[in-house]
Amino acid sequence: MSPDNPFLKALIAQPDDDTLRLAMADWLDENDQPARGEFIRVQCELARGVADPERRRELEVRQRDLLVAHDREWVRPLAEVLGCGPGEWGGWVFRRGFVEYFHLPATVVTKRGEMLAALTPVRELFLVPCKSGNVVALCNRPWLERVTALYLTGRLNENATRALMDCPYLGNLRCLDATPDDTVRAATRQAFDARFAAVRRTA
Questions:
Q1: Which is nearest to 143 in space by CA: 50, 13, 44?
Q2: pTM exceeds 0.90
Q3: 3-state percent breakdown (helix, strand, coil) of the chain, nearest 5
Q4: Of 29, 90, 138, 194, which residue is most buried, by most CB within 10 angstroms?
């Protein structure tokens, strides 16, 4: 799917709007990709909550079958952007029809995240390995503004802690798993804790 697709652009700009996802599903139906369109509808219905157990099981089975048949095809453009060969990358999760969760090295995300974020709504990042310098670089990336969960392995030095605290692109963050190391000054640590008090999970 081209990053120039107007439906995709609209979806990436407003990833919480399921109306846009369903519009994309219709477009896929009309452009010879009915399985992907169906997958989006199935995952959107599951995400809304299905009270009827039989219907929920039917949707879950269909979701699994569609992924088994098409997963490699659907993630290929993302793997290519990330520079991964066949079988080299498996840390992704589809949500409401699109890959939103990524488990990747921080160096890859800082170098290729902008291209990735033009192809799919990047919402959750689990970065391993992740060094403080990676965090500083990541905090300068405007595409980070659509990320809702950020899991950073390793402890953050003073520069990384301040970069996160001062980052203007984390307004949509709902979960942060990050821990300053023992060298971070008390004042910085307190300011960091204050900014992320509502979303922070400690290691």
A1: 13
A2: yes
A3: 55, 15, 30
A4: 138
pLDDT tens column, 73-94:
999 999 999 988 766 777 999 9
Q: What percent of the chain has pLDDT over 90?
A: 91
- Going through 78-148 in order, the beta strands assigned E by DSSP cover 92-95, 98-104, 124-127
| Tokens 């139906």 sit on residue | 29
Tell me the CB-side half-sphere exposure of residue 199, using CA atoms within 13 A: 19
User: Which SS3 state, helix, strand or coil, does residue 27 take?
Assistant: helix
Query: HSE of 167 in the Cβ direction (CA atoms, 13 Å)?
Result: 27
Phi, psi for residue 66 in degrees, rounded to 5:
-65, -40
Q: How many CB atoms lie within 10 A of CB 188?
A: 16
- Over the stretch 181-197, which tens digit does the pLDDT of each residue have? 999 999 999 999 999 99
Write the CA distances from 30 to 17, 21, 40, 153, 173, integer angstroms: 21, 14, 14, 43, 35
Q: 16 in helix, strand or coil?
A: coil
What is the residue type of 55?
R
**Which residue's structure tokens are 């060969």?**
85
Strands (E), 62-105: 92-95, 98-104
CA pair distance 99, 97, nearest whole angstrom: 7
**Exposure on the CB side of residue 4, measured as CA atoms within 13 A:** 0
